[in-house]
Amino acid sequence: MPISEQLPIEKIIRQDRRTVSIQVTDDAKIIIKVPRHASKQDIEQVLEQHIRWIQNRLTRARQGKQWTQRKFTDGEKFLYLGYLYQLKLIDTHKAPLVLKDNVFYLERKYQPFARDIFEKWYRRKAAENFYNRVRIYAPLLGVEFRQLKLSSARTRWGSCSSNGNINIVWRLIMAPQWVIDYVIVHELAHLRHMNHSSSFWQLVEAVYPEYKQARNWLKQNGHYLNI
Ligand SMILES: [Zn+2]
After folding, report:
1. Of 36, 83, 110, 191, which residue is 20 to 30 A from 217 by alpha carbon distance?
2. Do 48 and 109 lie in a common domain?
3. Distance (Å) from CA 123 to ligand 1 centroid
4. Strand locations in 50-205 (E)
């Protein structure tokens, strides 16, 4: 059976181009762009060459999909600082959502709004955590920051502007502290080097020697940092 028939190919787009591009969408579909005159065989060949990459992306997209189809019911697990905690619905509580004794307690009547309540909880923890870490790392990098903001960006974990503002994605609070620290060091280092030059990476490495592990962690697990 040709490889193309075993894959969830959504569409094949023919256009004026010289190379083939393969895209795996967030909902685990494949879109292929090919040169106008590419033959069926050409396409099969490219798919075969990239089959491992495609399979990895598909698995990741499917897992990501599962993860975001949450129902906020008993036993579901939620990440916080790299650890998974189970959710338990209870009838009455002091606050809508509490993390106590390694369990997330959500008051039952708030379940229809659970996603918003979780986001609020995460944002509050993120603001506190990121701010404390920025205050530790800014002097080590010899930079001054003006303002820290939480962002909802989907394509990057952090950003910064030349006037000293730093934006970090709130969902990063689900990652282990050592990964959060890397993103913070990365953005602070941009206040000295507004690029990804070798001097930039030298500065990052001087303050955060394990930066490559942290980058890999984000590449492999970033899609789990989601509710
Ligand atoms: Zn950067």
Report:
1. 191
2. no
3. 22
4. 77-80, 83-90, 97-100, 103-107, 147-151, 158-160, 165-169
